[in-house]
Amino acid sequence: MSEPELATETSVESEFEGMEVDAPRVGIVMGSKSDMPAMEKAAKELDERGIGHEVRVMSAHRDPDTVADYAKNAKMRGLRVIIAGAGLSAALPGVVAAHTELPVIGVPLTSSMSIAGGLDALLSIAQMPPGVPVACVGVDNAKNAAVLAARILGV
Ligand code: RP5
User: Fold this and answer.
1) Which of 39, 41, 119, 130 has its CA 20 to 30 A from that of 47?
2) Does the CB atom of residue 110 touch ligand 1 within 6 A?
């Protein structure tokens, strides 16, 4: 009977070669560059907690294929949570959640055309139909999205 092959240091190294050890665990996406001032608060909170993240601008309405590709590949790329901020008829968090099993945290945002102080975006995000959940934090409260992401990650 042949001896089981023991992994040598070199073979383990080659297994890990090409794997990004510092790959981001949280993806922060938003529907417009105009959302950046509000969404930067999520990035700042994750920075302070030492949680790797990436920031992307992509609109569910203007770039639907980009959003679908991003969400479909997110888990495979090592992301564990997605934070999605959008204003007005804020479809982005729901569209992301439709294309990934990862937990999605929506951040309803105010914008120049918001009605009722962002109630439009709040309802768009919170009122997802049964089966495709999106967690929803308060209007413009991107910091809480980051704190919730940290709790989901258990760090
Ligand atoms: C949404 O429309 C964005 O998330 C943003 O909050 C709002 C306004 O976008 P801009 O017109 O400033 O690009 O899609």
Assistant:
1) 119
2) no
